Every structure is written in C-alpha cells, then in structure tokens.
Amino acid sequence: MYRFSRSIYRELARDILEDKPGQWGPSNHERVLRACEACVYRLATDWHYFARPTKTLFNDIRIYFPMSSQERVYRVVDRYMTFAKDYFSSMPMSGYDIEGKRIECRATTRRGTPCQRTPLPQNGYCPSHQHLAEPDEIAIAA
Ligand SMILES: [Zn+2]
C-alpha cells in the first residue's frame, strides 16, 4: 500500500522547500513522506471514518511548499487520495484487514456488544445492520 504514498511523494518532491539552516529534527522531505504514509495508512485501515483525506493530508504538508505550488500540491494530493480511497474501498472483503485483524461490523448489538458479523465492503455494516449506514453509502451499495 505504500506505493501510494511513495507516488505522491515522488510527484511532490521537487517543490518541497529547502530546510531552514539549523532546522531541528527530520528534513522537510522526510516530513512530507511521513505525512503521506500516515494518511495512506489511515485510508487503508480506516477509510470508513476518514471523511476528508485530501484536506487532511494537504493541511499536514502544505507548509512545506511555497505559495506558488499550493494549487498543484492540492491537485496531486486529491488525485491520489481519491484513487487510494476507491482502491481500498473496492478491495474484496476477506474478513481481515491489511494487518490481519478481523474486520467486524461497525454496529453495536442491542446487548451493547460489538456486532461480530462480517461487514459488506460498501459501508462496513453487516447485512442485518444496513439500516445504520449513511444514506449515500446505501445508494452506492444498491
Ligand atoms: Zn452487524
């Protein structure tokens, strides 16, 4: 999955600002790459709850780019985030996430325990909890 973050980074790398002399900690290049990785990771593991990946990543990295590149950076981020989200959300449900953890329905049962049925890929709810999904998610599932 890190091919997404590396591709974003590669497209953005030439515009990243020079490190300030005496700057402490990781270089700007490393910060941008780490931010891309964190965002792609979150998208891969938790895309149901990750509402605005483009905005999140763009806000995390925009300070490392000059004003003149902001628009291009946003477009690159948006292109990859949209693609990555489509990719992760269309992956066949194996019942396990990319870390090997079991994926379970997002709902809580009437007894207050997490529902343990395998969810549908479109919205993360099992067939008996489809009524809890957001309306637009149901539209996509239909
Ligand atoms: Zn359920």
> How many helices does DSSP assign?
5
Low-confidence residue ranges: none
Count every beta strand, where a strand is a DSSP E run of 2 or more residues: 0
Structural class: mainly alpha
Helix residue percentage: 40-55%
Straight-line distance between termini: 28 Å
- Shape descriptor reads elongated
List its traits.
single chain, 46% helix, 142 residues, mainly alpha, binds zinc ion
Account of the protein in words:
The chain is mainly α and 142 residues long. Helices cover 46% and strands 0% of the residues. It has five helices and no strands. It has helices at residues 2-12, 28-46, 53-61, 70-89, 135-141. The radius of gyration is 18 Å and the shape is elongated. The structure holds zinc ion. Zinc ion (ZN) binds next to loops.
In short:
The protein is mainly α.
Task: Furnish the topology, listing elements before pairings.
Layout: H1 2-12, H2 28-46, H3 53-61, H4 70-89, H5 135-141
Zinc ion binds at residues 105, 107, 115, 117, 125-126, 128-129.
